[in-house]
Amino acid sequence: MKATILANGDFPTLNSLINELREAEFLVACDGAVCHLEQLEIQPDIIIGDLDSITERLKEKYSQKIIHIKEQESNDLSKAFFYCVDLGYDDFSILGATGKREDHTIANISLLSIYIHHCKSVVIKSDFGTFSVHKTPCKISSQKGQQISIFTPNPNTLLTSKGLKYPLHHLALPLWAKGTLNEARGEYFTLHSQKEGECVILYHALIH
Amino acid sequence: MKATILANGDFPTLNSLINELREAEFLVACDGAVCHLEQLEIQPDIIIGDLDSITERLKEKYSQKIIHIKEQESNDLSKAFFYCVDLGYDDFSILGATGKREDHTIANISLLSIYIHHCKSVVIKSDFGTFSVHKTPCKISSQKGQQISIFTPNPNTLLTSKGLKYPLHHLALPLWAKGTLNEARGEYFTLHSQKEGECVILYHALIH
């Protein structure tokens, strides 16, 4: 069961992403993100957040769809994600999770390493690329020449790659910059780690 | 000696940041970022990068200011930073380092933890906030109610805070999201760690 979550960062502009919102089986808007949907006449199934950024008119219009979750420990994206998990959703596409405040961008990306323990698949998509999260060993689809960045939530993870332009050999990536600016040599690449089941967050840059 | 570096992410729109570019003592543009300066009739002192995104006209106009650094290991921002360090600059303000490709944003922010070992001060500023880098213990200026996020390049760093709304007590922040969404209670806050001299990257969100 697939859920699409729209967070309150940069609203996507790519047609493919707008269509994904339009055709979502189950669409959750985080707080103020509903305003962008409203402009495109896209109806979310539910709206989650503390609602401090929604207009009174929208609050009224969507009063039956608003879920109040009073809890200070997690951000709106996590509230939306875990609400969907409780409903049985296990395949997630998250849009609007990057852009604007950079600390929110970093936080949202890192949360993938938590979310993957609660679902089958979760990705963050933007106008610039896609973050996905995997456990080693993994075989990842790519396009030849596609720019790839690799982040390891556990900085001690020792990665080895096949199919990347700049191969990794038992390499740790404690500095976030260290795994960036790589490139796929073909239609897939593989990653494995000394210890199995390590979490890896991958970024596929869009090919323009 | 202060240098201002304009990287090739989102060009700032805030007047305060445009003025900083306009009044910079020494302004370095990374590659295509020079196009934005050109529109505002701001002259960079030097241009650094592989120049694959600069037009022929600009290449000609700035031919005396272009520094070619052929090296695949580091990104344009690092090339610009270390070129300035070699010239004796030790105080850095970096603009345009966030926005657009999210992997570049994350990489640039993490590089602060390297740069701080080579200069007195370095910050990344955007329309949304400012990243700065410090060694513990540190006393940090803030405004009451200002949103603060804390990132530790060494995930084992145990931080304790005074003056934050959600105090840290010997707390490690291995998950990047864990140190976000905090708030300053007054005009400053302090951070110290069990081991002295640990690196901390702070984000001060702009108050709008």
UniProtKB/TrEMBL annotation, chains A, B:
GO terms under biological process: thiamine diphosphate biosynthetic process; thiamine metabolic process
Q: Where is the signal peptide?
A: none
The entry lists its GO molecular-function terms as:
ATP binding; kinase activity; thiamine diphosphokinase activity
Keywords for this protein = ATP-binding, Kinase, Nucleotide-binding, Transferase
Question: What sequence ranges are listed for the domain Thiamin pyrophosphokinase catalytic?
Answer: 21-122
Which residue numbers delimit the Thiamin pyrophosphokinase-like substrate-binding domain?
Answer: 129-194
Query: Where is coiled-coil annotated?
Result: none
Q: What is its EC number?
A: 2.7.6.2
Q: Name one Pfam family in it.
A: Thi_PPkinase_C
Domain of life, source organism: Bacteria
PANTHER family with a match to the protein in the record? THIAMINE PYROPHOSPHOKINASE (PTHR41299)
State what protein this is by name.
Thiamine diphosphokinase
Please name the source species. Helicobacter cholecystus
